[in-house]
Amino acid sequence: MKVIGIETSCDDTGVSIFDDKKGILSNVVSSQVKLHEEWGGVYPDLAAREHTKNIIPVLDKALKDAHVSLEDIDAIAFTAAPGLIVSLVIGISAAKALSWSLDKPLVPVHHIEAHIFAIFLTQKVDYPFLALVVSGGHTELYIVRDFQDYQYLGGTLDDAVGEAYDKVARMLDLGYPGGPVIDKLAKEGKEIMKLPRPLIKEKDRHKYNFSFSGLKSAVLREVEKCVYKPEDIAASFQSAAVDVLVSKTVNAALEYGIKNIVVAGGVSANTALREKLSEEAKKKGLNVYFPPLYLCTDNAAMVAYTGYKRFVEKGITVGYDFEGKARIRMDKFVKYLKDYLNRKNLK
Ligand code: KG4
Ligand code: ZN
To answer: Does the Cβ of 8 fall within 6 Å of ligand 1?
Structure first.
């Protein structure tokens, strides 16, 4: 069976083909990073225009790389939520058009779910596992008991951790996206200032919530002093951000008695997070799984694979009336999907 995956939730246009016998046959991503650089973040109108321009060439390349033709495709998976709505609708429309013209089933995927389940493309992880989702738009902790069985533990109250990396990079004039640059620069610096670790000691309501905007403002105050070197600021910021992520994740795993931790999303590429979480988890007898770097940031392989799982394990397909959503949590998306299917069955 071959499933095509389409991803356009933010600024990357991705198409991939997954084969249940051979794995990922192709994984094409057209990045818009250069275009958004001058804005220091993703500029929605520009992203939408670029997706429209790139979607067919990317699809064409994905088919060519995989040495398959459209007739060989058995199902079409697409990112239905969450993301920039103007970007999402381009991929959703392309998926619907393909499904209609090929008369093949249409399978919706939640972007965060795809980031998490990408781990199975390269590693075996036993359920239940704790998922730490860290990207440009999300910082969340979930217990994943099974596919489609998710318990939300907490998330960011303001900025996502990737967003904080991007904003700190902008303060230091380092370009976009900021994560990889800060990661690299931090290695040359020292943690010479103790920045706040927001909510790290929180025991009640915000035990598993995050907040990065205070940390970002603290960095700005240090930058404005013009006293410290950028590499030391980068190292100090990274140390604070990573401390919070590691501490909450390890605490949640211990509290809920979960042995396995999966880290997903763009920030899972971060070297300090990889090192520190692996080290702390080892001390507590926990296992940590990180995706390979090419599956950390946005891609369509994760969408093709998660769509395949939904189609084969759950037998789920949707009609052309299925709507994408800009904002919806992963656990709520499962309910949204089930409600949609119930309504359909009642008709
Ligand atoms: O998952 P992703 O590609 O897109 C979203 O769904 O948001 O994540 C992008 C984010 C950006 O904020 C980027 O700065 C961050 O991931 N990122 C990193 C690293 N590589 C990418 N953050 C920290 N360290 C990295 N090495
Ligand atoms: Zn993402």
So the answer is: no
Describe the strand order of the beta sheet including 23-31 as a list of residue ranges. Answer: 23-31, 12-19, 2-7, 75-81, 106-110
With a 6 Å cutoff on the Cβ, whether 291 touches ligand 1 is no
Q: DSSP letter string over 31-88?
A: E-HHHHGGGTS--HHHHHHHHHHHHHHHHHHHHHHHT--GGG--EEEEEEESS-HHHH
Q: What is the rounded CA–CA span in Å between residue 182 and residue 202?
A: 27
Could you give all domains of the chain from N- to C-terminal order, each with its CATH number?
2-116+296-346 (3.30.420.40), 125-290 (3.30.420.40)
Structure tokens at 256: 């809920």
Q: Which of 79, 290, 297 to mutate to test the pocket of ligand 1 (most atoms within 8 A of CB)?
A: 297
Atom number of ligand 1 nearest to Cα 163: 12
pLDDT tens digits for range 92-115: 999 999 999 999 999 999 999 999
Q: What is the pTM of this model?
A: 0.96
